[in-house]
Amino acid sequence: METVKDYFGSLVFDDRVMKATLSAKVYASLKKTIDEGTELDIGVANAVAAAIKDWAVTKGATHYTHWFQPLTGITAEKHDSFISPSPDGGVIMEFSGKELIKGEPDASSFPSGGLRATFEARGYTAWDPTSYAFIKGKTLCIPTAFCSYDGHALDKKTPLLRSMEALNKQALRILRLFGNENAKCVRSSVGPEQEYFLIPEEMYERRPDLRFTGRTLFGAKPPKGQEMDDHYFGVIKPRVAAFMNELNSELWKLGILAKTEHNEVAPAQHELAPIYTTTNIATDHNQLTMEIMQKVAAKHGLVCLLHEKPFAGVNGSGKHNNWSIATDSGQNLLSPGETPYENAQFLLFLCAVIKAVDDYQDLLRISVATAGNDHRLGANEAPPAVVSIFLGDELNAVLEAIETDTPYKGIEKTQMKLGVDVLPKFNRDTTDRNRTSPFAFTGNKFEFRMLGSSNSIACANIMLNTAVAESLKIYADRLEGAADFEKTLHEMIRKTIRDHKHIIFNGNGYDDSWIKEATEKRGLMNLRTTPDAIPHILDKKNVDMLTSHGVFSEAEIKSRYEITLENYCKTVIIEANTMAAMAKTQIIPAIEAYASSVAKSALTKKELDSTLACSFETGLVRKLSALTDRIDRKVRELEDVLISLHSAKDIGEESAMIRDTVLVKMSELRIPCDEAETLTAKSYWPFPTYADLLFGVK
Questions:
Q1: How far is CA 282 from CA 410, 447, 453, 578, in A?
Q2: Would you tell me how many other CB atoms lie within 10 Å of the CB of residue 2?
Q3: Which pTM does this prediction carry?
Q4: What does the pLDDT look like over 648-688, one tens digit per residue?
Q5: Which terminus of the chain is more exposed, N or C, with fewer CB under 10 A?
Q6: Rg (Cα) of the chain, in Å, rounded?
Q7: Sign of torsion, CA 230 233 238 242?
């Protein structure tokens, strides 16, 4: 019987396969490219291409694709076969180094945010050798970056790789100052926890809102939701278990370290968590995970919903980004050490993160900003839109001792003079987790909890990597020129704590009083919606920082502004049009049909006996008629505000109008429709209810 160990990574051209299929010289050259970023010689590329092709063909592959992540939020692929004509009229299987390294897909139909004219079609994909090639179906997938003809990044991988290099460069400067000459590189690592819903496919097909928008736009509250707290970690239903088993198998074949699975808080909601790996690979793996979730669900007669808020009244779905940094030798730079040397180094990297999160709290909020995620943040089911850091009581006390130059009152009273005394050792989990914190320290990593379930994790990690790189650069610039290293280090850490402690909050982020304290007393930003957040990416401090590290050009930053707001506007407009159509063509006719039936029933009774009161029927028809009129009025108001959007001068103004008018009218339309659902006979209601959807999987 085949075990997981036998087939894990069987569809991945990973290091094991490289060693087995490449000559020692070619393997060494490729590893040098992967580890150090050196350019790959065309002769080596041809040898690697031949090996990849031969391996892929033995696995049943007939095509190859440069698999990339454009600014659509999903992955893209164009399949080319390996076949080439042979002189005898047959075909041969070919794949060159040139084809491996570079592709040329049409770039005209992908979002560019003004980086290129619509008629300019040419774009390039470039092989990312740091992420292993893999087989999906009968296609060899080559992870690639995607850029325009003039070199502008049109994807999420390119700036992610740039941010990783920026972090690597600055972190190595710090390590050298602490005498570490052995570390060759520093990489950020991520483990993204993926939440999702599973619903029956046949019900999904009967809901236009789910098919067009990924979320329900109407739905009365069911008799039971998550009030009993009986779904979280509950017994997994057989149908869901079968889905999870096949999902695990497919992910493991692709080398994805799917580790933990369980029921989440809301009915029909579940979670999958992997073991964390290098950020670039983790990003690719998460994109693959979301795609495979949906494919496997379909095989089981289910639909996997990745929208952040598919159902009102129950918890939405997030994606916790567990982030850490480590050297190539495996030293976690966010783990407290056991010596003065390690303690000081840990504290410096910790302070770099604190400073980064405070200085660039707007960029972190921007990195998770979508129309879907706006429904989650601040809804007492996810962190608030205000960014803060949770450190826990013990580490917080250590920082306070450093700031005040007083003994730390831990297990031992220790004078906190950096580089001299030992930081008192503490276990990873000395403080309970804070699920309300947007950015929580969990022992040797930070858990960034603001991401929405459908978000690419690339965006959050681009901003996080680069912001931390900026903090480390400032520190390295000061320390490299310091006459007294230890004194400068100590003073610098104290200053960081003193200047940025307002970002540290260990309390309840769901409490309304915290938002008031955060904004009015601490001066933190509360960017509640995407239109509130996105304009800040154009702030001078943000543009200067991102361009100085070469992560984005100014033109690329402006393009992200345009693309993100455009996506927000299009998303909400599609939702609004769907609402109007469903109300006019499904909900109103259903209410009218039921009201007519009730009225006919009353008339029949009156014909039988004129003395019968028929007060129930009369009252119900009145209520339904009033609701129908109200729904009709609200539909027309919604359509009017949609028309008014044409007057917007630019995408910024349009997004603000949508936030202030369209979303308001959508909420107003939903109220009478949901009320009508509670009064209309189930046989007349045109689509499955919340009770059907949330409890439909047996």
A1: 37, 15, 15, 35
A2: 7
A3: 0.93
A4: 999 999 999 999 999 999 999 999 999 999 999 999 999 99
A5: N
A6: 28
A7: positive
Return the residue matching tokens 């008339």: 603
592-638 per-position pLDDT tens digit: 999 999 999 999 988 888 888 889 999 999 999 999 999 999 999 99
Q: How many CA atoms lie within 13 A of 402 on its CB side?
A: 31
Q: pLDDT for 205-248, tens place per residue? A: 999 999 999 999 999 999 888 878 788 888 899 999 999 999 99
Tokens matching residue 158 = 């390119």
Best CATH choice for the domain 567-694 from the list 3.40.50.2300, 3.30.420.360, 1.20.1420.30, 1.20.120.1560: 1.20.120.1560
Q: Do residues 225 and 251 touch, judged by C-beta distance below 8 A? A: no
CB 244 within 8 A of CB 251: no
Q: How far from each other are the two terminal CA atoms of the chain, in whole angstroms?
A: 30
Q: What is the 3-state secondary structure (H, E, C) of 499-544?
A: HHHHHECCCCCCCHHHHHHHHHHCCCCECCCHHHHHHHHHCHHHHH
The sign of the dihedral angle between the CA atoms of 684, 687, 692, 698 is positive
Contact between 617 and 599 under an 8 Å Cβ cutoff? The reply is: yes
Q: Which CATH number fits domain 163-216+229-552: 3.90.170.10, 3.30.590.10, 3.30.2130.30, 3.30.540.10?
A: 3.30.590.10
Nearest to 416 by CA among 495, 332, 493, 337: 493
- CA dist., res. 577 & res. 492, Å (int): 55
Single-letter amino acid, residue 643 = I
Question: To the nearest whole number, what is the mean pLDDT of the chain?
Answer: 90
Any residues with CB less than 8 A from the CB of 361 and at least 6 apart, and which? 387, 503, 524, 525
Place of tokens 């889905």: 243
